[in-house]
Specification:
By secondary structure, the chain is of the alpha+beta class. It has one domain (about 5-105): Ribosomal Protein S5, domain 2, CATH 3.30.230. The chain is about 45% helix and about 20% strand. The protein contains three helices and four strands. It has helices spanning about 5-15, 50-65, 90-105; strands spanning about 15-20, 20-30, 35-40, 75-80. Strands 1-2-4-3 form a four-stranded mixed β-sheet, sandwiched between helices. Keywords: Endonuclease, Hydrolase, Nuclease, RNA-binding, tRNA processing.
Amino acid sequence: MTRGSDYRLVVRRGSRCGGARVVTSMLTTGESRAARFGFIISKQVGTAVVRNTVRRRLKAVCAEALPRVPEGTDVVIRALPASATATYAELSADVNRCLDRLSQARS
């Protein structure tokens, strides 16, 4: 996702699941396209180097989770300050738990 309006729509209207390191919002649009992911990583997470490291880890987690997310779904993942010190495995566990929970609530 690239447009601010898309982010706002998902965060305001989508289902939400929170964890210790990330908050995940999911909205099904019904369009026939691949799922889209967006990331919100504020300066509270850390310096630019830390934020980019967290973003790269979250992108890798989402690339692995893409086959499990239904078509036409928009997902926004907001990193919390605790994500700065989290390992890849911890971020993966948080994101996957939230995606599974939101997918079950959706169906």
